[in-house]
Design goal:
Helix content: 10-25%
CATH class of the largest domain: Alpha Beta
Largest sheet: 8 strands, mixed
Distance between the termini: 76 Å
CATH architecture of the largest domain: Roll
Number of helices: 7
CATH topology of the largest domain: Mannose-Binding Protein A, Chain A
Structural class: mainly beta
Number of domains: 4
Number of strands: 43
Strand order of the largest sheet: 11-1-6-5-4-7-10-12
Strand content: 35-45%
Amino acid sequence: MNVIMGKVWLYGIVCLCMCLSCARVASDESGEREICFRGNVLELQQVHLLGSRAGLGSGDKVQLYIVEQEEEELKLPASEDFYQMRSDANGNIDFEDGEKHVYPNNPINIYGFCCRGMEGNPADLLNVPVRVEGEQVSEEALLRSDFLYVKSEERYRATDNVISLNFSHQFVKLLFHFRTDTPETVDFGQITALEVLNVVREGSFDVATGELTLGDAVDDIQAQPASESMVIVLPQKVKGGDVLFRFVQDGKERSYSVPADGMSLEKGKLYTCDVLINQYPGAGDKDVVISTRVEDWDESEPPIYVVFEEGQNVVATLTDVSSGVVVKRADLYLSSENRNYEKLNVPVIRNKMEFMFPREKEGGTLQLNKARFYTEAGDEFDYYFQDKELLGDNLDELSLVSPKVGDAWGDGVIFAVGEVTGYDEASNSFVTNVDGINAYRGRIVANASLGSELWSETKSKGKASLIGASNRYDGLENLKTVEAFARDNGETLDLYPAFKVCKDLGENWYFPALNEIRWIVLHKEGLGLEMGTLSYGSSTEISVKDCGGVTKSGSDSLFDKAIMNIWPVRAY
């Protein structure tokens, strides 16, 4: 059977078909090409549920509209352009009638869709009714709810061997992942209901443009109640404050409400709802409290984190906060003998913060190791605690007194407190500002050396040039200068190994300036550093061929831009 594009008058149909039949046979013998399709339908329409895998296979239906472009102006699909197709396991899309179809005389464009829940040729291609199932508790229901679409306006001709049709998802998939840190008290086998609420389930789809128009009715969708489950919904904006989903676990109903500014569910995207349920023992007879935390997501759709915790809410008080610093929230990093805990985005109001205490046993305590605080001014700072035990009895106090030189701080030891603004050569001391937030700024030195490294490679342009890394009290500025020099000369920091090995330690680590390494060597005993009898280089450039360094006694010394001992530092 041949593809016939164009309208045929009734009175001439028999004669015309006979002529075309003869013409097509003749043209086939002269090399006219058969229309062949390949598509990505199979890989797109696979779902994983209840430990199995389901998807389209041989014989599944695909609806295509093969539109002959008789003129320059784009001709849109119509009902008479419809062909029922079938997909097979090899990615081929064949004509269901099993006949051979060849290219017409004019180029063709392809429009189409694949939806297991729809049969045949819709009457109005500008308003194709679409919907998702109200009960999506099986793989079949999920496949019936999925909708794939292709629009390929490439004006294909008989020179094209195989037309590749790249279908895309037009709806949205919600994936629910339930997890717990307290498996002794939380049984996901007791999830008895899971529903998506307040969503539009029906609409109309324009095959020519690929645009979806939502209906007016808002409805609910039942999902498979399990620790891993999924639902397909239409793309839409969910109103702020509406409950998006609810579930029942161990007889308790919980729900997630959309933030005040609403939630956009965009077509073709997967939204993962990561639901954490914890049940902790309390410190005694306390009421059960449930708290919910949601992190924002960006355009790459990271998971939506939802936390449901039962246990004891406790209050801890911040004391000795630097003048002018107003803390508004905190991230707490705690530990017990068995595991580590993170309590993120804890609100702080008038220096008091309330959070769910992840107690492992009744009356148990936790160690507070570190906290990150966020201020109303938009600043943030880390604070490290030594041997700080939290009792979780509402009487815990966290002193944020300004740290001092010699304190262990994260992965190093403090050698300067405050914002460093200069260096007093006469007294060999840093000039600092410790007002307000600067009380929690400073610099630390690593606990160990990085060994020996070249200041610059022999083949680097900086080996025989003055780079401009002349800062004597801030090696971070010297690092930026060297990076800019390398970039401007088509190089990378790899050609400056001493700088590179320090930076690779992490954020704000750098090769110290001359005054920094001198101060450290002069005070190494007070800092508890085992620096031996070695001399150490610095990032401070003195001349075209020299950089500054210090001897084992802390005296200044010139070094060639060659190999030297490195001791890294970090700004905090």
